Structures are given as C-alpha cells and as structure tokens.
Amino acid sequence: MGNPWWREAVVYEIYVRSFADASGDGVGDLAGVRQRLPYLAELGVDAIWLTPFYRSPMADGGYDVADHRDVDPLFGTLDDFDAMVADAHALGLRVIVDIVPNHSSSAHAWFQAARRGEGRERYIFRDGGELPPNDWQSVFGGPAWTRLPDGQWYLHLFDSAQPDFNWRNPEVHAEFLDVLRFWLDRGVDGFRIDVAMGLYKAEGLPDTPVERQAFRTESPIWGQPEVHEVYRQWRKVLDSYDGDRMAVGEVWTDSIEDLALYLRPDELHQSFNFAWMEAPWSPTAFRTVIDDTMAIGASPTWVLSNHDVVRHVTRYGEGLPYSTTGLARARAALLTMLALPGSAYLYQGEELGLPEVTDLPPEARQDPIFARSEGKVPGRDGCRVPLPWSGTAAPYGFSPAGVAPWLPQPIEWAALTAGRQASDPESTLSFYRRALQARRVLRGSLPARITWLDSPEGALFFTRGPLTCAVNCGFNPVRLPPHDRVLIASAPLSDDMLPPDTAAWLHRS
Ligand code: GLC
C-alpha cells in the first residue's frame, strides 16, 4: 500500500457561488462546477474542496446552514451534486465538502424551535437581563450575543444569524455523526471542518480580555480540550468507510503545539497551515514556518489563499492590486510550496493570478463583516469576485452573457480570463499547469524530508532527493545552486542567476 491520496494531494478550493454559474442567475452552482471539471483535471489538481452548498439564507455565504442534508436551490439539487461527484470521480478528482459544526443558521429547524422555546439546550442560551451574559465579541464585530423577545440571549461567535451549537448536548454529536454518514454514503472523499477549534466553550462562559478572544490558545472561547473527543469519534466514522476518507480542519491557533493536538493519529488527518499563508515575503519567515511545520511530524499542508483572506498576489504586492512584484512573488511562492513535502491547497483564481478586488462599491458588498463593522472593515468580498472564464467583457463567461454576477467583476479581468491565458505559454495559468505537471512527475520519488542548503543573503535553497528548490526573496540576483538542469522556473533565468522574486526547481542526479 502506498501513501493515502491526501498526503501529497493538490486540492483546489471551489468557492461555489463564485466559480461558474450554469443556471444563469448570477450565482455559481453545482452544475457550473460540473461543467468546469475538465478544466480542473487539465490544470492537474487531485481533488476539489467545495464550500457550503447546503440550504441556507446566505447570511454568511452559506456558512449559515439551515439544512445539512440538502442542496440550496441557488446551487442546484442533490441530483446535481451526485452527477458532479460522479463526473469528478470519473476524471480522477476526489471531492471534499465543507462541514460547519460550530453553528447553524438561525433558519435551521432546531433554532426555529428554540425561538419558540423548544430544545434550547441544543444552542447556548443564557439569561442576561439588559446586558449580554458575558463580554465576548463576535469574530465579525459587535457583541457575540443576541436577545430574543422573551429576554433570553443566545451566543453567536459569528453573525447573529449563526447561533452556536451546544456541544455539551449529546444530541448535537449524534446529529453530526449522521450528517457525516449522509455525505460519506453519497461518495465524498473527505471533509473540511469549519472553525474546527470552536465547538466547545469553557464551562461558565467566563469574561475574557479582548486580546484573548481572537483565535488564541488559552482562551475560554476556542480550543477547549473536549473538542478532541469529537474528532476521535469522527475519525472512527471516516475509518469505517473504504477509500481513505479524510478530514482537514480549519484550526486557527497561535501555537504549533496546540495545532499538533488536532493532528494526533486518531484525530484529523490534516489542518490548514495558516502560518504559511500569513508569513511575509521573507526567507527567514518562510524557513521558520517550514521548520515548525515539519517538526509537528503529521501530514504537512501548505496554503497561500482562501475565501477568507486577501488574495496573495495583493498581499505580496504591498496591497497594490495589479502589482507585477506581487504576481512574481505569488508564482515563486507556488513553486516553493509545491516542492515541500505534504499537500497543497489552492484557491480558485490563483491559477489566473487574480488580485484582490479592492474597489468594490459599498452597495455591492455582501460579507456580514462589512455591515457589522458599519463599513469600517471591508470584509472578504474582494477575494470572492466571480471567476473570469472567457470573453472581453463581464460576466466573462461566468454567467450567460447579459447576466450580472452577484459581485461586479473588474474591467482589468478581460486580460486575465482562463481562455486567454490558456493560449499564452507565459501566462500564470500555463505556469500553474507546468508546475503541477512537474510535481506529478516527481511525486512518489521524493523523500518526505527536506535538507537546507547554504544560501546567499535573501534566498532560500533546499533539496528533496534529486530536486533542489531555490527561491530568491531578496533585492539582488543570486547564483543558482549546483544542478544539471533547470526543471521549471517562475520567471525567465539567465546565466545561472536567479532574479529577485523568482523561484526555480533544479535537478541534480
Ligand atoms: C470559517 C469560514 C468563513 C466563515 C466562518 C463562519 O472561518 O471559512 O468563511 O465565515 O467560518 O462559519
């Protein structure tokens, strides 16, 4: 038996409402995903992760689930889901779906009942008088409590339309075990667990200083020890199915030791490596994250962007949306992460070099963060703008011509469509295809560890067996380390020199 598929997989995140709109209502859907699967197979990824497509009033883009066992009509039907999975599997693509266990939608049948006073022990209700029961703040801004007309308060760590479940109630456990089985029986290969370090809150819900509230260890809000028992149970369910079903956790924490707890052999298979995503463009920062990640000893993962953060072209470009430096660094960072042991998570559109859209009009913004912060925090819509597929004007093949997508697409994207980039060998899309292909060729023949080489100021060199990866984060060109040939580079090389903001894979027998 070789490695399970997920260990070295490249997983492509599909933010469903912004990927492809087959129904023509301006919102992406499952039929749109299905139509575009050949594009993903050709890109060379191994798996797709779909963000929530379940029944939802869309207060948080579907992370407010009203029914965990059905598809929202906006995205299609269960039949559309089954057809999409069948096609994905036929193309050799695995399918990971999102599971949102920390909270439901306020439109969920359980919360509707709770509103009427029935089954409130499934959520976190407290008496509070005029003031909320404690000082916890919502991640999206404002208090984490909302009061019902009868005087009781309920906890919501996110939007007020996302009440937190009470995981101290066995009924919640049973419900989620059943939901896992529902989707496993439909053939999914894995789950991405939303807010995986949430679920349990410290007994007594104590007040806590605001600086200890944000996704930290030693907080009464996140990372309580009881949560690990949930994942032990879930692991047993996953292991009871054939075909290496897996779970990847969205675990926000500031401690590598804490992260390692979720990755014990009887818990989650993987968690996102947000330290890599958050590292600045710096060889020392990269090296520290790589060393820390490898030290955990579990299956490593790498990620540069997702639907919650500013796209990395823009982050690396000092906030300027169409910075050539940002794009060069983004390409170099991809090559670096694909050379590392473990699996890589890509976010839709990064293969097109899409930047963050920083100038969305306020009236177009839909992220609850924007409204809850009274417009002070722009929120996450800028990384969720629908993909440009083809053509020279919006909707760029995302929706049928004449249909306005749910967020407006910039005019600059005419130059960035998948169709246009596919026929340009120098494009970011062509580069991604070559890089993923090169990784496939090497995969399996590379050791699970890396060895650092001495590297000049500003650069980072490491080897994995016959592969050497060199990345230059500095301001001056550096001489490439010894090699017999260049396998791929993120930008043209000349005279054995690696320019700034460039990475290369070198072969040495
Ligand atoms: C996760 C999701 C994010 C969502 C939040 C609440 O962080 O990635 O998009 O808003 O959970 O469910």
TrEMBL record:
Identify the species of origin.
Answer: Planobispora longispora
Domain (Glycosyl hydrolase family 13 catalytic): residue spans on this chain? 13-384
Record-stated family: Belongs to the glycosyl hydrolase 13 family.
SMART domains in alphabetical order = Aamy
Q: Which Pfam families does the annotation name?
A: Alpha-amylase (PF00128)
Biological process according to GO: oligosaccharide catabolic process
Q: Which domain of life is it from?
A: Bacteria
Protein name per Swiss-Prot or TrEMBL:
Alpha-glucosidase
Which InterPro entries does the entry link to? GH (IPR017853), GH13_cat_dom (IPR006047), O16G_dom_2 (IPR045857)
Q: What GO MF terms are annotated? A: alpha-amylase activity
